[in-house]
């Protein structure tokens, strides 16, 4: 189940969507989040759905694949739909079961909200699926750079993010090793009540934390002797390349927003 | 190139000296091995040289100039170091990012950076892995990337602090092979810290340490000859050396020589 989860994962590829500048993608997703709320009747929602579907196609991802990866999120969407179905009143009464009624307004609102939520989730998933965590970090750093004026340590945060990302697989391996070592000493992780299973994790986390701190200390020393002194006087090896197609994509996004705004009723 | 004059250092928690009146000389263009058991002070030596530990007695001269707090940042730029754990010194998210890390810190321009990264990766035979993530590399490959990161800085001195001790025999061979090549081609000054006597064969000069003191120093032949000093410093003699010691007078420098003399 977990291996199929798509939230936050990156699928390497070379599609048009993959090749956009990560900054353009982040800005576009941000714009989309606003645009979604412009739609207020079915033509608007239809346009939204078509837009996201064609983007998925452009990214070279199949809908079935996305659907399978987002099954867990589906639960949330269904839940919101139900809430609207039962609690939004208005319009004609469709079903009257005495202690509850389903009214037409509820059905319509439910469908709209469902589409809205689904499109938001799809587009943010598309962002992480087509952009490597590293370029996302880079992009966030560049976009947030103006915040330095109000003393937000943008560079430091980006550095921490990229080092954390780099250590995830290392720590995963380590966790697995510790679990095996503790199992060999008679710990059981898969049986017993929830409480005893949680307790069994203590001897996993303590060695993990200790080693993580040791790693951090060694890493700090390695960084220091390699001349790391924070952002000052630092150059960048990775460069982001903003091209006309990125500007074009943003303009397209804004136009799309305007169209949706025009057809509001 | 580097001179230690009567250097003494003790850790705050310890009650004995980690370094006890050390006087040493590391010469330009030479490969010097420092051998010692755990706790012999060999890593402390490096940390002091890199300025990570402060408050030692005695003086260290670099090219005749005494090392002080003021000139330390400049001196440090001329040294590069590779540590023991391949995972904990890999800063970048990919191979090329990691090699570039030191260059970025020193404000090297982007065009030169790209050239230097490429050249450094080529000299450790890792160019084809440039976009790989560290989790997809073996220990030996990670250490080679670390060496590339050090070489990209074009250092006057390359220090390896037990750089092979966490590797499997295969990775160890790879790393030593690369180092030998680099030393031969670029005449880089090398300080090679190890506890494995079998690894010092290629060095020009060797230093044996025990309890913070230098107990023997000389060419590799001289070191191998004085087996008593090696045994007393709790180092494990390579099998062939103890064999030669028992059977012959004097020592040998290669398997062929040993076989011949036997």
Automatic annotation (TrEMBL), chain A:
GO MF term set: transmembrane transporter activity
Keyword list, A-Z: Cell membrane, Membrane, Transmembrane, Transmembrane helix, Transport
A GO-annotated cellular component: plasma membrane
Membrane topology, from the record: Multi-pass membrane protein
One Pfam family matching this protein: CbiQ
Transmembrane segments annotated in the record for this chain: 20-39, 73-95, 107-129, 247-263
Domain of life: Bacteria
Subcellular location field: Cell membrane
Protein function: Transmembrane (T) component of an energy-coupling factor (ECF) ABC-transporter complex. Unlike classic ABC transporters this ECF transporter provides the energy necessary to transport a number of different substrates.
PANTHER family: PROTEIN ABCI12, CHLOROPLASTIC (PTHR33514)
Description of how the protein assembles with itself and partners: Forms a stable energy-coupling factor (ECF) transporter complex composed of 2 membrane-embedded substrate-binding proteins (S component), 2 ATP-binding proteins (A component) and 2 transmembrane proteins (T component).
Protein family per UniProt: Belongs to the energy-coupling factor EcfT family.
Protein name (Swiss-Prot/TrEMBL): Energy-coupling factor transporter transmembrane protein EcfT
Species: Salinicoccus halodurans
UniProt gene name: ecfT
Automatic annotation (TrEMBL), chain B:
GO MF annotations, alphabetized: ATP binding; ATP hydrolysis activity; ATPase-coupled transmembrane transporter activity; cobalt ion transmembrane transporter activity
Coiled-coil ranges per UniProt: none
Subcellular location, record wording: Cell membrane
Gene3D superfamilies: P-loop containing nucleotide triphosphate hydrolases
Domain (ABC transporter): residue spans on this chain: 2-236
Membrane topology term: Peripheral membrane protein
SMART domains given in the database record: AAA
Domain of life: Bacteria
Pfam families documented for this protein: ABC_tran
Parts of the chain that traverse the membrane: none
Record keywords, A-Z: ATP-binding, Cell membrane, Membrane, Nucleotide-binding, Translocase, Transport
Listed InterPro entries: AAA+_ATPase, ABC_transporter-like_ATP-bd, ABC_transporter-like_CS, ABC_transpr_CbiO/EcfA_su, ECF_ABC_transporter_ATP-bd, EcfA_1, P-loop_NTPase
UniProt record similarity statement: Belongs to the ABC transporter superfamily.
Protein name in the entry: Cobalt transporter ATP-binding subunit
Source organism per UniProt: Salinicoccus halodurans
Lineage of producing organism: Bacteria, Bacillati, Bacillota, Bacilli, Bacillales
């Amino acid at each position: 189940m977990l291996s199929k989860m798509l939230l936050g994962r990156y699928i390497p590829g070379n599609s048009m969507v993959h090749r956009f500048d990560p900054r353009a993608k982040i800005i576009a997703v941000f714009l989309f989040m606003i645009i979604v709320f412009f739609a207020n009747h079915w033509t608007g929602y239809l346009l939204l759905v078509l837009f996201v579907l064609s983007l998925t196609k452009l990214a070279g991802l199949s809908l079935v694949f996305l659907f399978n990866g987002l099954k867990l999120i589906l639960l949330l969407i269904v839940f919101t739909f139900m809430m609207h179905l039962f609690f939004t009143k208005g319009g004609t009464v469709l079903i009257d079961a005495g202690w509850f009624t389903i009214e037409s307004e509820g059905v319509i609102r439910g469908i709209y909200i469902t589409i809205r939520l689904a499109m938001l989730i799809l587009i943010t998933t598309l962002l992480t699926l087509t952009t490597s965590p590293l370029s996302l970090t880079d992009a966030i750093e560049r976009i947030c750079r103006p915040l330095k004026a109000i003393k937000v340590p943008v560079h430091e945060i980006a550095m921490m993010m990229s080092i954390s990302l780099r250590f995830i697989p290392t720590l995963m391996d380590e966790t697995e090793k510790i679990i095996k070592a503790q199992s060999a000493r008679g710990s059981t992780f898969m049986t017993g009540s929830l409480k005893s299973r949680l307790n069994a994790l203590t001897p996993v986390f303590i060695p993990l934390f200790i080693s993580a701190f040791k790693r951090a200390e060694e890493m700090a020393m390695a960084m220091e002797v390699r001349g790391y002194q924070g952002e000052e006087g630092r150059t960048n090896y990775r460069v982001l390349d903003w091209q006309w197609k990125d500007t074009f994509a943003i303009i397209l996004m804004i136009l799309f927003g305007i169209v949706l705004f025009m057809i509001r009723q | 190139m580097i001179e230690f004059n009567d250097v003494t250092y003790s850790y705050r928690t310890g009650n004995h000296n980690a370094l006890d009146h050390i006087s040493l000389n590391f010469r330009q263009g030479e490969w010097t091995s420092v051998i010692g058991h755990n706790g012999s002070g060999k890593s402390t030596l490096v940390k002091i040289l890199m300025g990570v530990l402060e408050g030692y007695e005695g003086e260290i001269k670099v090219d005749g100039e005494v090392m002080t707090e003021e000139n330390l940042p400049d001196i440090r730029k001329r040294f590069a170091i590779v540590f023991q754990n391949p995972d904990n010194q890999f800063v970048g998210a990919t191979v090329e990012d990691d090699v570039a890390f030191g260059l970025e810190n020193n404000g090297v321009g982007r065009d030169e950076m790209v050239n230097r990264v490429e050249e450094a990766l080529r000299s450790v035979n890792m160019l084809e892995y440039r976009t790989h993530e560290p989790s997809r590399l073996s220990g030996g490959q990670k250490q080679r990337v670390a060496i590339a990161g050090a070489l990209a800085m074009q250092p006057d001195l390359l220090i390896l602090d037990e750089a092979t001790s966490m590797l499997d025999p295969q990775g160890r061979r790879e790393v030593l092979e690369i180092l030998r090549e680099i030393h031969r081609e670029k005449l880089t000054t090398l300080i090679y810290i190890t506890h494995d006597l079998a690894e010092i064969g290629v060095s020009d000069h060797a230093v044996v340490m025990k309890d913070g003191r230098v107990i023997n120093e000389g060419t590799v032949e001289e070191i191998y000859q004085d087996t008593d000093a090696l045994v007393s410093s709790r180092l494990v003699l390579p099998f062939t050396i103890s064999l030669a010691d028992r059977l012959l007078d004097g020592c040998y420098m290669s398997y062929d020589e040993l076989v011949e003399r036997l």
